[in-house]
Amino acid sequence: MLPRRSTAGGRARWYVLAMALVLGAAGCAQPPRAAPARSCGQVSIAVNPWVGYRANAAVVAYLATTRLGCKVTLKELGEEESWEGLAAGDVDVILENWGHDDLKARYARDTVVVGTTGNVGAIGWYVPPWMKTAHPDITDWHNLARYKDLFATIDSAGQGQLLDGDPSFVTADEALIRNLGLDYRVVYAGSEPALIKAFQQAEEQRTPLIGYFFEPQWLHLDIGLVKVDLPPHRPGCDADPATVACDYPRYELDKIARRGFADAGGPAYRLVDNFLWTNTDQNTVASFVDVYRMSPDEAAKRWTEANPDKVEEWLKGT
To answer: What are the boundaries of the signal sequence (predicted)?
Structure first.
């Protein structure tokens, strides 16, 4: 279980204050609910295994249910399984897609790119803040070879350990280690919560850790992870997964719909089409769930009540 309190001084205090403002604003009444222009019916939403995606799904599902009268089914699936579900007709929408140009091409006949979520995604290698203070040069990948022993664990069998999360996440870390000539080994924590807990403990206990992490993610506002500078990304440098030796690209996260769902143009599709928010918005809802232990519905209710203008924009045309 993740801790319920922040542990990082100024950043944490700023974040708690921001949360208090949002929670306070949540007492404001929403505009009267207008009846949807047409019946919504059923909508099946894929839910991938990280809290940022769950935040997207929580808000869209809450509005689809409470404002549009849809019957929503949330399906817990991995990323590739979600695409397979779109093609099979079992899933109507993916609410946060990280690139996957290969899957877009494979399932082009069955799917539609709806547009961006507004979120900008980043993946990379990170260390806890104390390590940057103690070892200022540790964020240059050229220096990782001489820090190998610092990061070695029982699980890495004498090599430096690079901690990854869920094996199903977008990652090129094993190829990166090999192609950069680093004597490191990828060890999987198994899930996003396990990865978060590892970074929290590394900062609190001042234990060495280097690992895979990403944005948007509320943990950055809590302990301010420090990114390691890998060789800069350039177009095409990751075209061959076996030879990749560059940093991850920035991702304009997008939404993918089943073609039949999009062609029908129903209220739920219009909501998904209009859905657009920021990394801060997502991190706020994600922290409600992960840090404050709200249910997804409660988190969505709090956020939507505090952000009526965005909600009404999303509901236009539904």
So the answer is: 1-34
